[in-house]
Design brief:
The structure is a single chain. By secondary structure, this protein is an alpha/beta fold. About 40% of the residues lie in helices and about 25% in strands. The chain contains seven helices and seven strands; from the N terminus they run E-H-H-E-H-E-H-H-E-H-E-E-H-E. The strands form two sheets. A five-stranded mixed β-sheet has the order 3-4-7-5-6. It has a two-stranded parallel sheet with strand order 1-2. It is elongated, with a radius of gyration of 18 Å. The N and C termini lie far apart (about 40 Å).
Length: about 150
């Protein structure tokens, strides 16, 4: 069984043997060969980064722009985050567009509990460390999320 995120269906239709890296190309060629050899291959649709990249670790930067579902993406990347001790995460917080504010609040709390710090990235390039209460009171901010002591 293959695991796809929804956009992988379109990627597979248009795949021409090129991609982000040699490892990506090799992996996608294997996927295309599997589907060509067996067009009835079962495909599980997933929205989780952890299910798509189960062995990914030591990620240094995760940039998420998912139109209000950034915290849902983070919820689906718990193992990647836990297996990446030097990870930094950049997201935009805009409470007007949050898919689920309760998920956002829960993920923020969990990340603080895991030893992460939240930094407000200002328009002038400065960054300000945010307490959890201050973060939860913001309507809109570009955020840098890091393990304590990285920055």
């Amino acid at each position: 069984m293959l695991t796809f995120r929804p956009h992988h269906f379109m990627c597979t239709l248009g795949f021409q043997g090129m991609g982000y890296s040699p490892a990506f190309v090799t992996n996608y060629k294997d996927i295309a060969a599997t589907l060509k050899a067996n067009p009835r291959t079962d495909i599980k649709v997933s929205f989780s980064l952890d299910s798509i990249l189960p062995n990914l670790k030591d990620v240094s930067l995760l940039r998420i722009n998912n139109y209000g579902a950034e915290f849902e993406v983070l919820l689906g990347a718990v193992n990647i985050i836990k297996n990446s001790p030097q990870i930094s995460i950049i997201i935009e917080l805009n409470k007007n567009y949050l898919v689920n504010p309760q998920v956002a609040t829960s993920v923020i709390k969990d990340l603080y509990d895991m030893g992460f710090e939240f930094w407000h990235l200002e328009i002038d390039g400065k960054k300000t460390l945010l307490t959890q209460d201050r973060l939860l009171s913001l309507q809109h901010a570009d955020l840098l999320i890091t393990k304590k002591g990285i920055y």
